[in-house]
Amino acid sequence: xxxxxxxxxxxxxxxxxxxxxxxxxxxxxxxxxxxxxxxxxxxxxxxxxxxxxxxxxxxxxxxxxxxxxxxxxxxxxxxxxxxxxxxxxxxxxxxxxxxxxxxxxxxxxxxxxxxxxxxxxxxxxxxxxxxxxxxxxxxxxxxxxxx
Length: 147
Ligand code: ZN
Hints:
Layout: H1 2-17, E1 30-36, E2 41-50, E3 53-62, H2 65-78, H3 83-99, H4 120-137, E4 144-145
Parallel strand pairs: 1-4
Antiparallel strand pairs: 1-2, 2-3
Helix pairs in contact: 1-2, 2-4, 3-4
The structure holds zinc ion (ZN).
């Protein structure tokens, strides 16, 4: 188990050091801003949604290792997914980081963040990108805050 935990930490550190899909998406047709005042994490999320499918997704921002790694993992997992699949992943991810239980369906690499459930203050860091995703998909112009 501790080996597995170390492996998970490696994945999180790697995504924090080398975030995937980092940058602005000039042709984005969905965008939202998110902020977690508890930790100071902020992020901008850009998406291209075509026919109910996320064909491209990128993020920019500054935050702690957990928020950056979570946003990076989220963009990797969501690229190419339908909006229905994205919603299901959001629910599974949220359940996992709040209860520590893996969902009944496969959430892929997102499972490396299960340990976050042991640190309640970090749950908001891990879920910031997902709440921002919700706002972007609902075309909300209000910046999202985890408070
Ligand atoms: Zn944070």
